[in-house]
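The records we work with from here on pair a chain with its fold. Here is one such record, which you should read through line by line:
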Amino acid sequence: MNKITILIPVFNEINTLDKIIKKVEQAKFCGLEKEIILIDDCSTDGTKELYKNYPYKVLYHDVNQGKGAALRDGFKEATGDIIIIQDADLEYDPIDYEPMIQLIINDRADVCYGSRLTGCKPSRSFMFHHLLGNKFLSFLTNILYGSTLTDMETCYKAFRSDIIKDIEIKSDRFDFEPEITAKILKKGARLYELPISYYGREFSEGKKITWRDGFYAIIALIKYRFTD
């Protein structure tokens, strides 16, 4: 393996994008060449003005489509042997990349999730209803797919590129998370979890996921248990 692609879906993150780009640039990639691809999901807050400062590929959506649609486009453009997802806010720290990548390089895993809920790393207190929702969705995943995941909804997901490129992603929004998890588990890929840090933000700080996304996640988990 020679290259890793970091996909960064972006929607109205003018206050955090510069900071997360710097963190990604400073991260360790186990000696792999890095490729950074940003996917702008029709930002309207001035974020687009920042892209000229970066020497990276940027994909643009003419209308807001959602995180799933952004990542679907990003997967098509990625040329790395490993692909990892990075949100454009500061909730996740790229310092946690290295052990996730190492599992795949060492051929221990095909896919690695970073879990916020192991209690082994710093984690800002979840909003109570978000914590309950997250635990319920992971519990439902484990019942439906016979897995033992602790954090299905995590952003940090690293894939061998041949695994993810072989999966058709249909979800446009946050239901990408349950869809990709369902399809990876049904595929029989070797999925591991590792503890990561989490610096969660409130809605007043720009958090976008809501209870409605949890409802759609339940539908997706059930739907993809019985369909492709």
Observations:
- The helical segments are 17-26, 67-77, 97-105, 128-145, 161-164, 176-187, 211-226.
- The beta strands are 3-10, 33-40, 57-60, 82-85, 111-115, 157-160, 191-195.
- The mean pLDDT is 92.
- The chain is about 35% helix and 15% strand.
